[in-house]
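Page 47, continued from p. 46.
Same chain as before, 175 aa.
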Amino acid sequence: MALHLIIDGYNLIRRSDRLRRAEDKSLELGRRALIDELAAYKRIKGYKITVVFDGGQNNEPFEARSAEKGIRIRFSRHGQTADSVIENMARRDAQKAMVVTADRELAAKVAAKDAVPVDPGEFEEKMEMAKLMEVKGTGEEDGDRQGWVPTTRKKGPARRLPKSRRRQLRKVKKL
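Result:
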């Protein structure tokens, strides 16, 4: 199952120190910096990535769509919020969707549609880790890989997380 990362654009920019500094210079520089970061992550992981921005100045009755560096970019239409666009995309992609947002209300709505909400700070850490792993290598050839550790400790269904939560955790691990 191929993951589809749906990014709440301005939300991620304003939660990241590095991207916020670029946005302080100009809104366009902030968006450009975000797209550059996401393009680098896409080269490493290969996931389908869509970033959604509020289209406040978009006076058209339709959503503005484009793509740059393999990243799909969507601006909401006039009178529509980016959150509603993200919610519709999460509903359409359901279990394949992971939504990066710090908006609790949006996170609850997409979780109800079987998409997995991810905190922007956590996602930024995963992007940094992916960059480091690409530069350094995975480390598996050095014997750093952790496998099964034998134990006598019993762990049965009473300690098992619900199936939906385990599914969400597996998706987040893929980041």
